Amino acid sequence: MKKRYVSLILAAALSAAALAGCGGSGTEAPGSKETTGKEAAGQASAQDTVADGELSGEITFWHSFTQGPRLETIQKAADKFMAENPDVKINIETFSWNDFYTKWTTGLASGNVPDMSTALPAQVAEMINVDALAPINDLIDDIGRDKFAETAIAEGTMDGNNYSVPLYRHAHVMWIRKDLLEQNGLEVPETWDELYEAAKTLTKDGVYGLSFPCGTNDFQATFFLDFYVRSGGGSLLTDDLKADLTSDLAIDGINYWVKVYNDCSPKDSINFDVLDQATLYYQGKTAFDFNSGFQISGVAANSPDLLQYVDCYPVPKIHADDGTEGIMTTNTPMVVWKASKHPEICKAFMKTLYEEDTYVEFLHATPVGMLPAIKGIADTDAYKDDETIKQFAHAEEVLTAAADIGTAFGYEHGPNVQAGIMQNNHVIEEMFQDIITNGTDVRTAAKAAQDKLNALFETAE
Q1: How much is the pTM?
Q2: Is 195 left (phi over 0), alpha (psi -120 to 50) or beta?
Q3: 55 CB contacts (<8 Å, ≥6 apart)?
Q4: Which of 283, 313, 341, 376 is 20 to 30 A away from residue 349, measured at CA?
């Protein structure tokens, strides 16, 4: 799989930057260092980093933990590490997930990439494909390889080398409002048809049943279509990793979400990104949503009086008696960039994030939103001693079960760069907008989007 297609991801990143107004919502930490012109792979070594047995050097860490508590716990961990290693400086810069993709892809050409970063699994495949990452087999072995799920490690593995280590995991499930269901005599939907009927019934009195987001600066519509298709045992990728938007199942899914948009969704959701979408649920303006356990902290911050009515259930099925399919799980990883002059500092710092006290404090920054990536933590008294985890025991159970059987987006065929291209180029979002805005025939629009994706795929082959 390891081929070069820097021009493709650079073009995609420039396009995304233009759509976002070239500004982005990420912020740079004060005092962050310039990373342009870092040494190429192989020039850095343990000897560069360690002087007299002590770590020494300066690194930049890009992460996407933009929410206050998570950002604060990461900074606290970095401060502690620097206090224990006085010759080390860690500069932290924070970007939204979407802005991060633009940042690293455009940064490849100039060398403006960090020493270490968080990433999304599909992005890791792209980073491996352009030879941007350093192997971290030794770090995983040092932490304890058997502590991680094999599937989570496999997501960042190529040719026997591990290029990412999961920091936490979560799964996408269906979020409900118990009070609205009870007030209208409705049961929790188990099928997509039941969800549509319930959402249509609940679209009243200033509440939308279910918002459908398809803004072209995010990948929410891609995910929503994927939920439907994967629930039916299908995939948006064929076994030979071609885009498949014209299968009967995919066409049914496209029609389903267009129907939801028309009957149950605010009309401006055609331009929604993930935060726009989630905020409606946070504020009590939607009855259903699809997201991770981060919904809990969002409701707590925006509408704490509604928190008692929040819960989650598995993603619906096509038919009630269908088998349970694995939907989208995200094992959010960290990576070390090949251009780093000090990979040993990166790995030493990463290892400290898994120390029980630090790790539990980090997970508690968004309880139930971030599930442990290493075995045994969920069973510790320290982890369980959290009021949100106690209150949302059912939600955590649903999320954990979903995480255990799901895969990263597009990885039902194993790790692949095509999944990242499909996720990050927003072709499916453009397809939905074409159908909704221009009235383009669904099959015609799906075929055009499928052809566009396959043309992009060819550049990576």
Answers
A1: 0.85
A2: alpha
A3: 49, 85, 87, 88, 344, 345, 348
A4: 376
Return the residue matching tokens 């770590």.
Answer: 55
User: What type of residue sits at position 101?
Assistant: Y
What is the band of 13 on the pLDDT scale with cuts at 50, 70, 90?
Answer: very low
What is the CB neighbour count within 10 angstroms for residue 54? 11
Contacts of 113 (CB under 8 A, 6+ apart): 35, 38, 104, 107, 132, 337, 339
CA pair distance 227, 461, nearest whole angstrom: 27
Measure the CA–CA gap between 225 and 286, rounded to whole angstroms.
19
Give the pLDDT of residue 157. 95
d(CA 268, CA 16) in angstroms, rounded, equals 20
Packed helices 427-438 and 220-231: angle between N→C axes, nearest 10 degrees: 90
pLDDT at 21: 34
Residue 461: pLDDT band by 50, 70, 90 thresholds? Answer: low
Among 6-10, 213-217, 425-429, where is mean pLDDT lowest? 6-10
